[in-house]
């Protein structure tokens, strides 16, 4: 509300409006180059006297992992008794994937120095490592939960629209090779479209992916049924639901695929500037509205 009032005021004052636009554009261009950090966990303190090589072993493994990110949206590796993997969201470009994993490998070492287990999440990717071999094992803890504080129009009623959208996704997407998918529900009776995304790390098999997503869906039902948007991230899978399109829509299949060809460049029309300004403001407002509540779970081993 405060933001809207401020915007209204600025709209009446051309000079301030210009400076607002410049601020927003600067904000967008700086956030576009950096991934959006979500959360991080560390555990299992390491005794660096006992294992003096741990830090350098970890650093070698993570930089080798990071070097794969321009070509692979998922990669797992292990060496010297440390296991690791990363996963980029199914719709992000290889450039964004690489940028995100570069940042993740640096941040996880900076914030979890000398920890035997760590996991970091961004909007665009996640990365984890451990001295315990977790590869192929599905894990739903630790997890984070985030929701929009805004209620749906009927918060006390079972949100059947969410289930109608998400159930079929959980049934089908684990059996796709990429274990990632998005879907959109139609608007009806004046309600907005809703959008959902599910993804699993590809070290686990399809039935484990499905179990993981079912666990998260149950958790979402408990916490967030009355909310207009929410997301849950766990080590092996993640689930997100919003009233706006937070992912790149899947590209329509091209008749002649050219795997080596350049990325398609969007063509902007004559009034592209206007559209950009509208999208920019919508993006800023919705990301402010989203990051409002965060709940974390950590199980004891
Ligand atoms: C991470 O490791 C450090 C150093 O061993 C330790 O002090 C810290 O408690 C660990 N953090 C967690 C969350 O286990
Ligand atoms: C680390 O290991 C050394 C050698 O085993 C031991 O003397 C020291 O107390 C340990 N330190 C911690 C914090 O556990
Ligand atoms: C990794 O650690 C082991 C001991 O745990 C050591 O023998 C080895 O040289 C280390 N490798 C690297 C690349 O640091
Ligand atoms: C990683 O990205 C964050 C923004 O999400 C930025 O503040 C930080 O400086 C970056 N870290 C590195 C090491 O590039
Ligand atoms: C959302 O709905 C719940 C249940 O009806 C209510 O307790 C809560 O105060 C509402 N929250 C907001 C922000 O409107
Ligand atoms: C999936 O992996 C689990 C072990 O994590 C195994 O018990 C199960 O049989 C596997 N399912 C299939 C269909 O391969």
Helices and strands in order, then pairings?
Layout: H1 2-11, H2 14-33, E1 37-45, H3 54-66, E2 74-79, E3 82-88, H4 94-111, E4 115-122, E5 125-130, E6 143-147, H5 160-172, E7 180-185, E8 194-200, H6 206-224, E9 230-233, E10 237-242, H7 272-290, E11 293-297
Antiparallel strand pairs: 1-4, 2-3, 3-5, 4-5, 6-9, 6-11, 7-8, 8-10, 9-10
The structure holds 2-acetamido-2-deoxy-beta-D-glucopyranose (6 copies).
List keywords for this structure.
301 residues, alpha+beta, Killer Toxin P4, Chain A, six-stranded antiparallel sheet, five-stranded antiparallel sheet, 7 helices, disordered N terminus, binds 2-acetamido-2-deoxy-beta-D-glucopyranose
Please tell me about this protein's structure.
Keywords: Membrane, Repeat, Signal, Transmembrane, Transmembrane helix. Residues 1-33 form the signal peptide. Residues 36-134, 140-246 form the Gnk2-homologous domain. It comes from Salix udensis. By secondary structure, the protein is an alpha+beta fold. Among the domains are: 35-130, Gnk2 domain, C-X8-C-X2-C motif (Killer Toxin P4, Chain A, 2-Layer Sandwich); 144-242, 2-Layer Sandwich (Killer Toxin P4, Chain A), CATH 3.30.430.20. The protein is built from seven helices and eleven strands. The strands form two sheets. The protein has a six-stranded antiparallel beta sheet, covered by helices on one side. The longest helix has 20 residues, at 14-33. It is elongated, with a radius of gyration of 21 Å. The structure holds 2-acetamido-2-deoxy-beta-D-glucopyranose (6 copies). Residues 42-43, 45-46, 114-115 line the site of one 2-acetamido-2-deoxy-beta-D-glucopyranose (NAG).
């Amino acid at each position: 509300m405060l933001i809207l009032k401020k915007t209204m005021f600025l709209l009446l004052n051309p000079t301030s409006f210009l400076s607002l636009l410049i601020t927003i554009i600067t904000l967008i261009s700086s956030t576009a180059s950096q991934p959006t950090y979500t959360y991080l966990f560390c555990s299992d303190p390491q005794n660096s006297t006992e294992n003096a090589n741990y830090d350098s072993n970890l650093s070698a493994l993570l930089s080798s992992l990071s070097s794969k990110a321009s070509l692979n949206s998922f990669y797992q590796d292990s060496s010297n008794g440390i296991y690791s993997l990363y996963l980029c969201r199914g719709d992000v470009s290889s450039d964004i994937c690489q940028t995100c994993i570069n940042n993740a490998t640096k941040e996880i070492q900076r914030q979890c120095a000398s920890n035997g287990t760590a996991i970091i999440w961004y909007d665009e990717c996640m990365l984890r490592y451990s001295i315990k071999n977790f590869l192929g094992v599905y894990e739903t803890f630790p997890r984070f939960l985030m929701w929009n504080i805004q209620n749906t129009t009927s918060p006390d009623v079972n949100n059947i629209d969410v289930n109608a959208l998400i159930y079929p996704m959980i049934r089908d997407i684990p059996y796709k090779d990429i274990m990632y998918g998005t879907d959109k529900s139609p608007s009806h009776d004046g309600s907005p479209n809703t959008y959902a995304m599910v993804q699993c790390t590809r070290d686990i098999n399809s039935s484990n992916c499905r179990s993981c997503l079912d666990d998260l869906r149950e958790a979402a039902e408990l916490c967030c049924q009355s909310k207009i948007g929410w997301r849950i991230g766990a080590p092996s899978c993640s689930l997100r639901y919003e009233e706006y399109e937070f992912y790149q829509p899947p590209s329509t299949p091209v008749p002649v695929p050219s795997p080596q060809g350049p990325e398609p460049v969007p063509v902007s029309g004559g009034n592209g500037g206007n559209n950009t300004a509208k999208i920019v403001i919508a993006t800023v407002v919705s990301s402010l509205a989203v990051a409002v509540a965060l709940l974390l779970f950590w199980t004891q081993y």
